[in-house]
């Protein structure tokens, strides 16, 4: 009996061993196959992520918009007035919001973007019809404005639009002459043709700059600080476009000042360009050279960011909230180099800054109470923090 039991146990154990061994082999094979599939999926995800790159950044009053090379438009920060153009969404982290987009321009409390078919869309504050719709109601989702548009630029209460044919159109407030219309016109409810033969536009706080095809620079609007650069003793408000300079290829406009770069890469400034509030520094009423070898400029309300031809980054103005990202709160009364390396594009706005590096990463600093720095907090930063782009599923 014992021998039989022993033999039975031996045979049974052998069968179990063979069966279990076969199962292990199957399991191992299955796991190996799944690992291979997962690796392939991960590789595809990595490749897809690597193929999506930032092509432009636009900082608004309290929000930021980022355009990717797959034509998706991402946003973060305030949505109180409809700035992000997505009902119910206000995020301190980037979210994909709109698609089929080829250009974007953020402004105070609103956003504009141009689709692939060159149609212009706007969203956000519209109390002065600055979105381009006459009802003066805020828009929390994008509304179409017009067709055949190549660029748009928004001031505080007015908007300039550049069409494919070189026409400059305007809409919104003309209280200070920022649309170059008669002082009898306070608000333009719908877009209207302002000028022809225009190649670039820039809306400042309450003034406007345009470059014509011949390279001449023209301006209109508020001139209390000399931001139009047409000399002292001139009226505080100019209600028609007046010539400022020739041979201009880059322009930027802030709060009470203007910057432009001429063909020889010299940077000129006019108005209260130092932007030190409460200081005894006198504004420029005629343009002055403040830096040479300049290739890129952007103007915030009270600070400016400059990239020179050697790719170095320079700043000027107010640094109260850490706008310069240099780890300090020290203002600059003249252009000063800061050492944030390998920056290829910058965007300045009210009180924060965006820096796009050569490796495709986006970094931001400054005022962050609405989450406009995109780091998931509402803490101000005086040093750059990297913005991480994840899908909604990845954020969860």
TrEMBL record:
It holds the Pfam family RCC1. GO terms for molecular function: guanyl-nucleotide exchange factor activity. Gene3D superfamilies: Regulator of chromosome condensation 1/beta-lactamase-inhibitor protein II. InterPro entries: Ran_GTPase-activating (IPR051553), RCC1/BLIP-II (IPR009091), Reg_chr_condens (IPR000408). It comes from the Bacteria. GO terms for cellular component: cytoplasm. This is Alpha-tubulin suppressor-like RCC1 family protein. The lineage of its organism: Bacteria, Pseudomonadati, Spirochaetota, Spirochaetia, Spirochaetales.
């Amino acid at each position: 009996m014992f021998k039989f039991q022993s033999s039975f146990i031996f045979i049974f154990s052998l069968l179990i061993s063979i069966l279990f061994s076969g199962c292990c082999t199957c399991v191992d094979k299955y796991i190996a196959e799944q690992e291979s599939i997962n690796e392939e999926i991960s590789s595809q995800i990595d490749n897809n992520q690597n193929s999506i790159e930032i092509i432009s950044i636009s900082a608004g009053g309290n929000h930021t918009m980022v355009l990717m090379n797959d034509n998706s438009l991402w946003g973060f920060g305030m949505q109180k007035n409809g700035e992000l153009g997505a009902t119910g969404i206000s995020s301190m982290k980037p979210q994909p919001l709109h698609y089929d987009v080829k250009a974007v321009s953020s402004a105070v409390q609103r956003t504009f973007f141009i689709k692939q078919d060159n149609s212009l869309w706007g969203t956000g504050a519209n109390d002065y019809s600055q979105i381009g719709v006459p009802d003066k109601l805020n828009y929390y989702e994008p509304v179409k404005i017009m067709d055949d548009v190549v660029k748009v630029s928004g001031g505080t209460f007015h908007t300039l639009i550049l069409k494919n044919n070189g026409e400059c159109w305007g809409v919104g407030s003309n209280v200070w002459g920022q649309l170059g219309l008669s002082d009898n016109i306070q608000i333009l409810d719908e877009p209207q043709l302002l000028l022809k033969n225009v190649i670039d536009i820039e809306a400042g706080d309450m003034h406007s700059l345009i470059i014509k095809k011949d390279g001449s620079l023209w301006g209109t609007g508020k001139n209390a600080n000399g931001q139009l650069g047409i000399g002292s003793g001139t009226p505080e408000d100019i209600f028609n476009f007046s010539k400022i300079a020739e041979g201009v290829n880059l322009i930027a406009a802030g709060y009470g000042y203007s910057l432009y770069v001429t063909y020889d890469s010299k940077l000129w400034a006019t108005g209260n360009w130092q932007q030190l509030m409460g200081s005894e520094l006198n504004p420029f009423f005629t343009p002055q050279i403040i830096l040479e070898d300049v290739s890129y400029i952007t103007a915030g309300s009270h600070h400016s960011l400059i990239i020179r031809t050697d790719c170095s980054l320079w700043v000027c103005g107010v640094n109260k909230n850490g706008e310069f990202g240099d780890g300090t709160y020290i203002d600059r009364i003249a252009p000063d180099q800061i050492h944030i390396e390998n920056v290829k594009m910058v965007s300045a706005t009210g009180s924060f800054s965006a820096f796009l590096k050569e490796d495709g990463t986006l970094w931001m600093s400054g005022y962050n109470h609405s989450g406009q720095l995109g780091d998931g907090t509402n803490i101000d930063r005086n040093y750059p923090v990297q913005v991480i782009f994840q899908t909604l599923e990845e954020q969860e």
